[in-house]
Specification:
Elements (H helix, E strand, L loop, with lengths): L8 E5 L4 H12 L3 E6 L2 H12 L5 E5 L5 H15 L4 E4 L11 E3 L2 E4 L3 H28 L3 E6 L3 H4 L5 H21 L4 E8 L5 H4 L3 H9 L9 H11 L11 E4 L3 H4 L1
Parallel strand pairs: 1-2, 1-4, 2-3, 4-7, 7-8, 8-9
Antiparallel strand pairs: 5-6
């Protein structure tokens, strides 16, 4: 399917690497002007420079999604550079995995810390809220737009050692459905994607045994690629998806049905 995003301006949070970078590239190849928002300046600038080297209209803007002032500044910088915003991809996310309570021989030996819980909530859940609230006024000025949020297959079925991450990704689904109701009448669609296990730096940190177990339950027989997810993002922000609102699109190679 040919997707034409010419004259549209897209923001991709966490766009410096992995799925975010692949998404920025996919949107730009479809004609969008793309602002990569990330807090890692060196990596973000390198990503934007590499994509610009392909002849794509991409820039880097430093943004920390956990800080409202930083997000507001990023909105202003994006509008100053490109004249407005039409698309928001809430892709930024982190993990801080730990069991709720770890024990041995009946004695507690550890567990998830408050900092581990709070850090993930701040980026993956409140960051989505903050970025969306800051960007929506710009979409309204353009007469509408598209928002796509990153959830996860684990939001639907849980995952060992990820209380914090699962809580955020389930929360993202809830916020997506609320915003689809609130903003749909304003010509703004809000959807979410739920990737399965994708070959990124995040999954590279997982034990080989855990990855093997996931592959055994994935009918596609492989990890997803960042491009697989980028293609889903690109479809949901296109005119072809104009009547799709409030959905959660699984991009998991059949992981859910394979479990």
């Amino acid at each position: 399917m040919h997707i034409d995003l010419t004259q549209r301006v897209a923001v991709v949070t966490g766009g410096a690497n992995g799925i975010g970078r692949a998404t920025a590239r996919r949107l730009a190849h479809s004609g969008a002007r793309v602002a990569i928002w990330d807090r890692v300046v060196a990596v973000g600038e390198a990503a934007a420079a590499a994509l610009a080297g392909e002849g794509l209209e991409v820039c880097f803007i430093e943004a920390d999604v956990t800080q409202r002032a930083s997000v507001n500044a990023a909105v202003a910088a994006t509008v100053a550079r490109f004249g407005g915003i039409d698309i928001l991809i809430n892709n930024a996310g982190i993990t801080r995995d730990a069991q709720l309570v770890k024990s041995k021989d009946g004695a507690v030996t550890g567990g998830m810390t408050d900092d581990e819980f709070d850090d993930v909530i701040a980026v993956n859940l409140k960051g989505v809220y903050t970025c969306t609230q800051a960007v929506v006024p710009e979409l309204l000025k353009r007469g509408g737009g598209r928002i796509v949020n990153a959830s996860s297959v684990v939001a639907l079925h849980g995952n060992f050692g990820q209380t914090n991450y699962v809580a955020t990704k389930a929360g993202v689904i809830g916020m997506t459905q609320v915003w689809a109701r609130e903003l749909g009448k304003r010509n703004i669609t809000v959807n979410a994607i739920a990737p399965g296990f994708i070959a990124t730096d995040m999954t590279a940190k997982m034990p080989a045994s855990a990855l093997d177990a996931m592959l055994a339950h994935t009918p596609a027989g492989r990890l997803g690629s960042p491009e697989d997810v980028a293609n889903a993002y690109c479809f949901l922000v296109s005119d072809a998806a104009a009547f799709i609102n409030g959905v959660v699109l699984s991009v998991d190679g059949g992981l859910v049905i394979g479990t």
